[in-house]
């Protein structure tokens, strides 16, 4: 029996399998990610701009909209993990893509019919978040079935590169489209992207993929408890969950996301096009991070790289808080670049590490438990950021965000199993 609180053994030398770029199933999965991420990044840019410009939303309302998108991770994240260890993960991802396509299409329809308002944005955000819970947990649990387990770092790197590329071009494309058509109609692009993703996922045929498990008498509550115990009794998983949860509380999906658009458009006097341009150029840092992550880990060691990458977001927000209208674009570019590079390197490392030390049969429950901890802080952070931005102002709120972001490194620093880790460990799949 594996002791989940034991130290980690270094990886053994194995023959390198065929490149993931030459594997048809991975290419289908990667293509689905790319198409979906482009539409999603356009949506993330357009919705707050839509709320500000078309609906005159307050900072608090922006925080509420952002919170509703991530609230489902608190409500059903653990249950989804237990169910996804029984269900066919690919089919769940396809169903979730179709559901998100339908949900996002409600916004253009609401705009054309004159029914678009903040409550509708909140409701659609919640539904999209609900499908995203199942998609994201199934997604990370599915990758080890698409590629060999020793190739999961390579696979995650390619998927992160896809996300980074979408982050690079998405805001710029969204800003350009906003100059041509109204914001709600741009969301049609996202709806189509989810449908395209579903079609691509349907092309995947993996003989070794996880199949639906037979129904058992095991209660869902018992399976959820097993996943939580596995994560929080494992020193490495526990520290990753704590560090990521704290940073997400004040990150782009949390407090920072609630105030960033209002800060840029109102305080720094930028246009949506200028904001999109700054985010686009800055997100080149994500491409740099995705390209260099493997080399950094081999050279410096996995643990030190995770700690350094995690600290970069706090440093970036300090720079953001000093921005002035005269140099707003340059400051946003620097801020976004530093943050994007750090987040990309950290995500590649921590997701691959989690997958490496988790048995196959526990992957979905592990992901659900971790997601519950790290995504569960997002709605809290978004609501807090929106409230503090309204009461204190956006700039003081940014200084608070920066301080908490830097503190997110502490769980990693205080955990020897992470701090001294040099390479990805190996644990037999079970």
In brief:
This protein has 18 helices and no strands. The protein is mostly helical and 430 residues long.
Describe this structure in words.
The chain has 430 residues and is mainly alpha-helical. 76% of the residues lie in helices and 0% in strands. It contains 18 helices and no strands. It is globular. Residues 1-14 and 208-217 have low confidence and may be disordered.
Describe the secondary-structure layout:
Layout: H1 24-53, H2 59-84, H3 89-112, H4 118-146, H5 152-180, H6 183-201, H7 220-232, H8 235-249, H9 255-267, H10 272-282, H11 284-300, H12 302-321, H13 328-356, H14 363-375, H15 377-391, H16 394-407, H17 410-413, H18 416-419
Continuous helix count: 18
Structural class of the secondary elements? Answer: mainly alpha
Topology pattern, helix = H, strand = E: HHHHHHHHHHHHHHHHHH
End-to-end Cα distance = 11 Å
Largest sheet: none
Helix content: over 70%
Strand content: under 5%
Low-confidence stretches: 1-14, 208-217
Would you give the CATH topology? Growth Hormone, Chain: A
Classified in CATH, the superfamily is: MFS general substrate transporter like domains
From the spread of the alpha carbons, the general shape counts as globular
Average of the residue pLDDT scores: 83
Radius of gyration: 21 Å
């Amino acid at each position: 029996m594996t002791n989940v609180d034991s130290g980690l053994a270094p990886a053994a030398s194995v023959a390198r399998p065929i490149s993931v770029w030459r594997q048809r199933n991975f290419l289908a999965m990667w293509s689905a990610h790319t198409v979906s991420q482009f539409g999603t990044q356009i949506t993330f840019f357009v919705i707050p701009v839509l709320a500000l410009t078309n609906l005159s939303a307050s900072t608090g309302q922006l925080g509420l909209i952002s919170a509703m998108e991530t609230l489902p991770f608190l409500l059903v994240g653990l249950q989804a993990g237990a169910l996804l260890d029984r269900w066919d993960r690919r089919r769940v991802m396809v169903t979730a893509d179709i559901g998100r396509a339908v949900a996002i299409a409600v916004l253009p329809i609401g705009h054309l019919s004159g029914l678009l308002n903040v409550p509708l944005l909140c409701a659609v955000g919640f539904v999209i978040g609900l499908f995203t819970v199942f998609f994201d947990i199934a997604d990370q649990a599915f990758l080890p079935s698409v590629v060999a387990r020793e190739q999961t770092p390579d696979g995650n790197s390619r998927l992160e590169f896809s996300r980074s590329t979408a982050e690079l071009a998405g805001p710029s494309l969204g800003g350009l489209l906003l100059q041509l058509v109204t914001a709600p109609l741009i969301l049609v692009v996202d709806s189509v992207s989810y449908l395209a993703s579903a079609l691509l996922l349907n092309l995947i045929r993996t003989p070794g993929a996880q199949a639906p498990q037979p129904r058992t008498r095991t209660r869902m509550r018992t399976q959820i408890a097993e996943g939580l115990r596995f994560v929080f009794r494992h020193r490495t998983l526990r520290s990753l969950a704590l560090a990521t949860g704290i940073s997400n509380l004040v990150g782009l999906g949390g407090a920072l996301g609630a105030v960033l658009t209002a800060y840029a458009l109102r305080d720094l006097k930028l246009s949506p096009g200028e904001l999109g341009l700054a985010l686009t150029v800055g997100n080149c840092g994500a491409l740099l991070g995705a390209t260099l992550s493997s080399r950094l880990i081999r050279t410096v060691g996995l643990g030190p790289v995770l700690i350094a990458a995690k600290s970069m977001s706090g440093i970036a927000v300090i720079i953001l808080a000093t921005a002035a209208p005269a140099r707003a674009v340059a400051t946003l570019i620097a801020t976004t670049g530093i943050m994007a590079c750090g987040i990309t390197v950290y995500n590649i490392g921590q997701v691959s590490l989690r997958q490496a030390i988790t048995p196959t049969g526990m992957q979905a429950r592990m992901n659900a438990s971790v997601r519950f901890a790290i995504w569960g802080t997002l709605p809290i952070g978004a609501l807090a950021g929106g409230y503090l931005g309204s009461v204190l102002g956006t700039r003081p709120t940014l200084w608070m965000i920066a301080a908490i972001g830097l503190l997110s490194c502490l769980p990693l620093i205080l955990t020897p199993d992470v701090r001294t880790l040099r390479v990805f460990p190996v644990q037999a799949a079970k």
